[in-house]
Design goal:
This protein is α/β, with parallel strands linked by helices and 219 residues long. The protein is built from 6 helices and 8 strands, in the order βββααβαβαβαβαβ. The chain has a 5-stranded parallel sheet, with helices on both faces. It has a 3-stranded antiparallel sheet with strand order 2-1-3. A hairpin with a 5-residue loop joins strand 1 and strand 2. Helix 3 packs across helix 4. The protein is globular and about 55 Å long. Bound molecules: zinc ion. Zinc ion (ZN) binds next to loops.
């Protein structure tokens, strides 16, 4: 049996506490603490489940390459400008905004314009058919883009190791969940853990990740 550990997390600001508290000392909101179960034992295995990345090894300083990193041109003047010239290898970019403002459409449009790069587009929001229909309305060209409807973090890493993409898109972080945490998708612990695992993947593999995240105005 896995040893379980629970933590109380403020659903408003993400502050955590070992005990339930009525008023959050961090953001001042009342009754925002919710118990979230973290199974401790399997936490160790999260990095092992299907993730195949080259381990960080110390290198001689004289052999560290300092040549300009090859950025991925998004073919969107606006987005390239925001990113400082394109998507940098090993960077995680969060596309945040209120639900329904067109984040998925914007990202899909960008992805469909990227050439000569293998892209893995993971959606927990839509079926592959829905993505295809939207993509057809956006572009007539065919990008080297693989689509999958997936919400399991562990499965996402299996797809990544099978496809070995140059760019990963996850729509949205709120729909992704890991088996190592028992709380529901979208909860603070799930979002935090899944984002941390994706960040770790992108740092160690050098593959950029575009992460879509919903931000509710009420919060
Ligand atoms: Zn708080």
């Amino acid at each position: 049996m896995a040893k379980t550990k629970s933590v109380y997390v403020c659903q408003n600001c993400g502050n955590d506490s070992p005990k339930w508290i009525g008023k959050c000392p961090s953001c001042g909101e009342w009754n925002t603490y919710v118990e979230e179960i973290i199974s401790k034992e399997s936490k160790q295995s999260i990095q092992l489940a299907g993730i195949q990345v080259t381990k960080e090894k110390p290198v001689l300083i004289s052999q560290v390459e300092t040549t300009e990193e090859s950025r991925i041109d998004t073919h969107s003047g606006e987005l390239n400008r925001v990113l400082g010239g394109g998507l940098v290898p090993g960077s995680l970019v969060l596309i945040g905004g209120e639900p329904g403002i067109g984040k998925s459409t914007l990202v899909l449009q960008v992805v469909m314009n990227i050439r000569n790069r293998k892209i893995l587009y993971v959606s927990g929001e839509e079926s592959v058919k829905q993505i295809k229909l939207r993509a057809e309305r956006l572009s007539s060209d065919v990008a080297d883009c693989y689509v999958v409807s997936e919400t399991s973090l562990e499965q996402i890493f299996v797809h990544i190791s099978n496809i070995n993409p140059d760019l990963v898109v996850v729509d949205s972080i709120q729909t992704v969940s890991t088996e190592t945490i028992e709380s529901s998708p979208g909860s603070v612990s799930q979002v935090r853990e899944c984002a941390a695992a994706l960040l770790k993947y992108c740092k160690s593999s050098g593959t950029p990740v575009l992460l879509i995240g919903h931000i509710n105005k009420e919060n």
